């Protein structure tokens, strides 16, 4: 089982929840998660222990975001296809993906994203606006590039499998 697949199990993404996460509202509002988490941790300066409420809410938002939206009206858009491609990529240990998608780029992008998260942790500890901005930028630029590659993967594979064909409507 791939690391990414284990992570999707943490978010309890079954077939229905994957389709909910494919809603463009879910994809685009997901970009709010990291700034909200950082702000909630920064609130400890002013709120003390009361900041735990906002930290809890921000982490809850991270887990609820992929599942609170309804199934999209259409999956013929970049955001939906990025989620569907990610779903295909997570199953690469079971369903072979084209060789040109077996690249180190995906690992590189995940490393850059992890670097961005690390910088965000520094920003949280030291209340650094510029570190937060850098960390969020690195994380979201690398994640957006990764998602764009997932759209390409989905487009390459959508006609290769009956289940994948049914995802597009």
Description:
The chain is mainly α. The chain folds into 2 domains: 5-9 and 11-73, no CATH class; 100-168. It is built from 10 helices and no strands. It has helices at 3-10, 15-21, 24-30, 33-42, 44-47, 51-68, 78-90, 105-126, 129-157, 162-167. The longest helix is centred in the C-terminal third of the chain and has 29 residues, at 129-157. It is globular. It starts with a helix and ends with a helix. Pfam families: DUF6653 (PF20358). The chain crosses the membrane at residues 21-42, 48-69, 102-124, 130-147. InterPro entries: DUF6653.
What layout of secondary structure does this protein have?
Elements: H1 3-10, H2 15-21, H3 24-30, H4 33-42, H5 44-47, H6 51-68, H7 78-90, H8 105-126, H9 129-157, H10 162-167
Helix pairs in contact: 2-6, 3-6, 4-6, 4-8, 7-9, 8-9
């Amino acid at each position: 089982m791939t690391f990414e697949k284990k992570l999707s199990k943490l978010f309890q993404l079954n077939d229905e929840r994957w389709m909910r996460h494919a809603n463009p509202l879910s994809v685009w509002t997901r970009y709010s998660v990291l700034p909200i988490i950082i702000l909630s941790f920064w609130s400890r300066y002013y709120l003390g222990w009361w900041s735990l409420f906002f930290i809890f809410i921000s982490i809850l938002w991270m887990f609820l975001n992929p599942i609170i939206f309804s199934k999209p009206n259409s999956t013929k858009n970049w955001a939906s296809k990025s989620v569907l491609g990610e779903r295909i990529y997570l199953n690469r240990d079971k369903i072979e993906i084209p060789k040109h998608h077996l690249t180190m780029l995906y690992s590189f992008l995940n490393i850059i994203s992890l670097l961005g998260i690390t910088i965000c942790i520094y920003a949280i500890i030291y209340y650094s606006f510029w570190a937060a901005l850098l960390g969020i930028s690195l994380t979201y630029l690398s994640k957006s590039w990764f998602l764009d590659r997932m759209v390409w993967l989905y487009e390459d594979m959508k006609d290769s499998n009956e289940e994948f064909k049914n995802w597009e409507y």
